[in-house]
Write a structure and sequence with these properties.
The chain is α+β, with helices and mostly antiparallel strands and 113 residues long. The protein has a single domain, classed as 2,3-Dihydroxybiphenyl 1,2-Dioxygenase, domain 1, CATH 3.10.180.10. The chain contains two helices and six strands. It has a four-stranded mixed beta sheet, covered by helices on one side. It is globular. The two termini are 20 Å apart. The mean pLDDT is 94.
Length: 113
């Protein structure tokens, strides 16, 4: 039935953001044609939050240690916010080369096997 999930990150400069995922984050990928890279992702979770309307979706990457992640991004000159503590995790936002933000967090919640 379901074989996976496909996330889309919209960007005003998708080429540099694809290169970031390929070269900096080292995500495995395939070229779907013409340089259009499709990235394999680490294990994914989905959660459903209450909202006033439908259609809003968010995308975050998760890491094991937020301080180590920030140190690595700093070494690579990737802008990174201060850690924001939430009940569900320790969150930072990085700025992708294309200018868009991407949330990364160290989860405090239980994770499915």
């Amino acid at each position: 039935m379901i074989i996976g999930a496909h996330a889309i990150i919209y960007s005003t400069n998708s080429e540099v953001d694809r290169a970031f995922f390929r070269d900096v984050l080292k995500f495995k990928h395939v070229d779907a044609g013409g340089g259009w890279l499709v990235f394999g992702m680490p294990p994914v979770e989905a959660a459903f939050h209450p909202a006033e309307s439908n259609g809003k979706h968010e995308f975050y990457l998760m890491c094991e240690n937020i301080e180590n992640f920030i140190s690595r991004m700093t070494e690579l000159n990737v802008p990174c916010t201060d850690i924001h503590e939430e009940p569900w995790g320790r969150l930072v936002n990085i700025t992708l080369p294309g200018g868009g933000p991407l949330g990364v967090y160290q989860p405090k919640h239980d994770r499915p096997a």
